[in-house]
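Researcher: Final request for today, and then I'll write up notes for the group meeting. The sequence and the SMILES for flavin-adenine dinucleotide follow.
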Amino acid sequence: MSTSTTNPILIVGAGPTGMIMAIELARRGVPCRLIDKKEGPTDTSRSFTLHAKTMEMFEHMGIAHRFLSSGIKSKGFSFNFKGKDERPSLDFTGIDSPFPYILVFNQNDTERELREHLETTYGIVPQWHTALNKISVSDDGSFNLVLYNDLTGNKETLDTPWLVGCDGIHSFVRKSLRLDFEGENYDGMVMQMMDVAHDNFQGSDDWVHYYMSKENFLLITRLPNGNHRVLISEMGETDASDLAPREAFQKLIDGHMEGTQLAEPSWATKWTIWKRLAKQYRAGNAFLCGDAAHVHSPSGGQGMNIGMQDAYNLGWKLALVAKGTGSPELLDSYHVERRPVGDQAILGTDAMHDIIMAHGHGMEDRLALTQEPNWHDDAVSRISGMSYTYQDTYDLPAGLTSLPGPQPGERLPDVKLSDAHRLFDVLRHPQLTLLMIGDKDATNEAIDVARQVAAHNVEAIKPVLVTSQHQEADAGGAIIESVLDTNHSLEAMLATRGQPQTLLVRPDGYIAFRCLLTEQSYLLDYVQRYFTTLSATKAI
Ligand SMILES: Cc1cc2nc3c(=O)[nH]c(=O)nc-3n(C[C@H](O)[C@H](O)[C@H](O)COP(=O)(O)OP(=O)(O)OC[C@H]3O[C@@H](n4cnc5c(N)ncnc54)[C@H](O)[C@@H]3O)c2cc1C
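Model: Predicted protein-flavin-adenine dinucleotide complex:
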C-alpha cells in the first residue's frame, strides 16, 4: 500500500532530543510529526544524569516536578585513585542555579515523562515502526521524503518544508545529506554497565563514585529504582574475557573495595565509544540535533543533556520562522551557537577521560590533573551546562553603551525578585521576554518602548515592567505585566543600579539584547531585524 501526505515539520527520532524538539514546536502552536523506526519506547536506561541547565529547561517547560519527585539529588562526582589518600571531587552544590546538583534519573524514565507530557498536553504521540528511508531535496529547498512502516508495510511519501534529524549516532538524515561526521574512536576502549542490586557498598548515596586504577575504571551510583548503576571500562580485557558479565564486574569491584557483593543484574550492556562531530549542523532546511550531530566519551554524563539543549536552542527559532513571526536569519545561529558546544563537550569529556579512563597510565599523573588551577570550577560549570555561552557569536552595534554584568549571548542567572517571584518565574512562557527595568520615573519611557516593540511584533515578545514599587502600565490599551523587585536584586545582578534599561531574554534563557532605556533605537533595530512579523512567507 502507498499513501501521500504533506506535513509542516518532520522530526526523525523519538529519543530525548526529538521529544524536546516536538515539545518546543507544540508549545508555540506549530504542528509537527514525530516518527521513530523502533517498535516502541526503550525500556532500558542509558543516561542517568540530568544536569542543572536541563532542569532549568524542564522548569521553563513546566515539567521539572515530574523529575524532582523521584530523582536522586547527587552532590557530584567523587574520585578514588587506587593507592592514593587524596579524594578530589567535582561538587555541584555551589553552582548558581535553582538546581545545584546532578539529578539521577534513568533515561528510559526521562523519555517516558517527556512522552507523557507530549501526549497529555499537546496530543502528540510518536509514530513507532516508521522509518525515514529516502530524502529528496526539491528546488525550493523543501523535502520529498519516503517513510516506511514495517508493521503495516505502508510506504508513504511526504512533502515537508523542514526536516529535523534527531536520529541518533547512525543518523540517516546526516548520511543522506552527506554531512561529514569527523573524529575518531577511543581505540580498544570497551565499556560495560549493569543496573544491579548489591550488598554492603559503603559509598554514600549522594555522590556518584568513580574508582580508578592503572588497569580499569569503575563507577557506582544509586538509581531511583533501588538498583545501583555499575559501569566499568578496561582496555580491551573485558571484551576478550569469556567471564559472565556479573563475574567480570565482581572481579573488578573486588580490586577496589572489600565486601561488596553484586546480585544478578536487571540489565547489562556493552559498548564502544567514539568522538565525532558533524561538520555542519544544518543543510538548507534540514538540521541535526543530539547524537546525530555529536558523540563523545560518557565521562561526566553529558550526551543526552547536550542533545536536548540543541533541540531547545533550535525549537523556538524554528517555531517562529515557521509561523512567519521570526526572520529566517534566526536559523543561521543554530549551527553557529551549538557546534562550538559540541566541540567543547568533546574537549571537556576528553580531559575528564584522561583522568578516569587513561588505562595504562599511573595514578600520580592522573591525580595531578585534578589539582590544576580551575580544574574543579571549569569542569563543574561545563558539565552542568552553566558555562556554555554564545557571547562570541553576538555582534553588538557600534555606538551602543557597554554595560557591566551579563552580556548578550550569555545565560541569564536566576534571582529572587520578591517573596512572590523569582526571575525565572517571570520568564516561564514560550515567548521572548522584554524586561524593562527602572524606577517610577522611567515608566513612561518603558511604556513607549513596549508600544514600539508591540508595533513590530506582538506575538514573539512579551514585555514585562520590573520596578521596585507597584504600578500599572498601559501600552496603548494593552496592560503590560509588571513585577516587583523590592530589593533591586535584578539591577544588582546586572551591576547597573539606577540605570533604567531593557533586557531581551530568549526563551532558552540566554540574553538576546541589552541596552539603556535611552538607547532604545538599538533595541528596536534588533527587534525589527529578527522578530518583525513577516507577510507569512513561510507561515503555516
Ligand atoms: C551506555 C550509555 C550510557 C550513557 N550515559 C549518559 C549519561 O549518563 N548522561 C548523558 O547525558 N548521556 C549519556 N549517554 C548518551 C545518551 O544516551 C545519548 O546522548 C542520547 O540517547 C541521545 O539522544 P538522541 O535523542 O539524540 O538519540 P537516540 O536516543 O539515539 O534516539 C534516536 C532515535 O532515532 C531513531 N531513528 C534512527 N534512524 C531513524 C530513521 N531512519 N527513521 C526513524 N527513526 C530513526 C532511533 O530508533 C532512536 O529511537 C549514554 C549513552 C550510553 C550508550
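Model: The chain has 15 helices and 28 strands. The domain at 2-70+104-182+274-383 is CATH 3.50.50.60 (FAD/NAD(P)-binding domain).
Researcher: Thanks, that's everything.
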